[in-house]
From TrEMBL:
<feature type="compositionally biased region" description="Low complexity">
    <location>
        <begin position="1"/>
        <end position="12"/>
    </location>
</feature>
<dbReference type="InterPro" id="IPR010940">
    <property type="entry name" value="Mg_prot_MeTrfase_C"/>
</dbReference>
<protein>
    <submittedName>
        <fullName>Magnesium protoporphyrin IX methyltransferase</fullName>
    </submittedName>
</protein>
<dbReference type="GO" id="GO:0032259">
    <property type="term" value="P:methylation"/>
</dbReference>
<feature type="domain" description="Magnesium-protoporphyrin IX methyltransferase C-terminal">
    <location>
        <begin position="225"/>
        <end position="320"/>
    </location>
</feature>
<feature type="region of interest" description="Disordered">
    <location>
        <begin position="1"/>
        <end position="25"/>
    </location>
</feature>
<dbReference type="InterPro" id="IPR010251">
    <property type="entry name" value="Mg_prot_MeTrfase"/>
</dbReference>
<dbReference type="InterPro" id="IPR029063">
    <property type="entry name" value="SAM-dependent_MTases_sf"/>
</dbReference>
<dbReference type="GO" id="GO:0015995">
    <property type="term" value="P:chlorophyll biosynthetic process"/>
</dbReference>
<dbReference type="Pfam" id="PF07109">
    <property type="entry name" value="Mg-por_mtran_C"/>
</dbReference>
<keyword id="KW-0808">Transferase</keyword>
<keyword id="KW-0489">Methyltransferase</keyword>
<dbReference type="GO" id="GO:0046406">
    <property type="term" value="F:magnesium protoporphyrin IX methyltransferase activity"/>
</dbReference>
């Protein structure tokens, strides 16, 4: 989390200078010089909810010293307990979480309420940057830009509609889905409110459905799946990437938490501070593993980048058919 790179392709994709006062303006990821304590908190924010001061005691040398402590911790015990309580595995835990405690937390984070702490506000900014960069990525082709009007887009894992809304405003024909019925209901509400001013009826109202990624069917020009792979271990992520690619005709856009030795250690630190509320498992993915999964089904990465704020990090890639 202590560094960032802009999205790149051939030639590199360039972003305009951010305007902090407008949430609609594309924000360019910037390099951040963070102390070790902030970096540790960033990974912990992905792994589980916690108070912003929970990791304030961590200094540069503390991370190395924590390695021994981490070897004695067993977050898997808490994870198994979650699965037993909901009567299933990862998928059931995710569904239960995002229909309950998780829905309330992330609705607040993704919303515009001022009732958020410093960490939640920063995560909101990071996710907003990811959404804005996706819109930039989809409309910034080499031919000088392209319109999304009439383009079919699958928003897989739509949450509260933070990407669905700008896609619809660009004229895309959006099919949005989420494993959480609560999220889908909220997304529908927000979309209706956001498109209420479409007096001319030029925009297409997105279609919503409740379901997991495995249940998605159909063919779309573009498939986008943001911040969802964090719920899938690599063994299942490969099949999920292949499935999403089978739905896309021209482009597949993914974001995921990148796996490095450093980030992996920081995630383990975060698991030592799970907070009062339960959270889902957090899986990091090495970029080379995601790229390998795409290559196996005949796709290649065309653009890539890293979106970071102090408490949020996400690798963003656009893949296209290799042929």
């Amino acid at each position: 989390m202590a560094f960032s790179t802009p999205l790149s392709s051939s030639p590199p994709l360039s972003f305009p200078t951010p305007k902090p006062s407008s949430s609609k303006t594309l924000l360019r990821p910037k390099t951040l010089a963070l102390p070790e304590a902030s970096a540790a908190a960033a990974a912990a924010a992905t792994a589980a909810p916690f108070d912003s001061t929970s990791l304030a005691v961590l200094g540069g040398g503390s991370l190395a010293a924590l390695a021994a402590v981490l070897s004695l911790s067993d977050p898997e015990i808490r994870r198994r307990q979650q699965a037993v309580e909901v009567g299933g595995g990862d998928k059931e835990v995710v569904r239960e979480y995002f229909n309950g405690t998780g829905f309330k937390r992330w609705k607040k984070i993704y919303g515009d309420t001022d009732d958020v702490n410093t960490v939640q506000l920063d995560i909101r900014l990071g996710h907003s940057k990811t959404v804005e960069n996706v819109i930039k990525m989809l409309t910034d082709d080499k031919d000088g830009g392209r319109t999304l009007r009439g383009v079919t887009v699958c928003d897989a894992g739509c949450g509260t509609g933070s990407l669905t809304i700008p896609l619809a405003k660009e004229g895309a024909v959006v099919s949005a889905s989420d494993i959480s019925a609560s999220m889908v209901s909220e997304a529908e509400r927000q979309v209706r409110e956001a498109l209420a001013d479409d007096a001319g009826g030029e925009l297409v109202m997105p279609q919503f459905q409740v379901g997991d990624l495995e249940s998605l069917e159909g063919k779309f020009d573009t498939v986008v799946c943001l911040d969802v792979l964090i719920h899938y271990p690599q063994s299942k992520a490969d099949a999920m990437i292949a499935h999403l690619a089978s739905l896309a005709e021209r482009r597949l856009v993914l974001s995921f938490a990148p796996k490095t030795l450093y980030y992996d250690l920081l995630k383990r630190v975060g698991e030592l501070f799970p907070g009062p509320s339960k959270a889902t498992r957090a899986y990091l993915h090495a970029e080379k593993d995601v790229e390998r999964a795409l290559e196996k089904v005949g796709w290649r990465i065309r653009k890539r980048g890293l979106i970071t704020t102090q408490f949020y990090f996400a690798k963003l890639i656009e893949a296209v058919p290799a042929a």
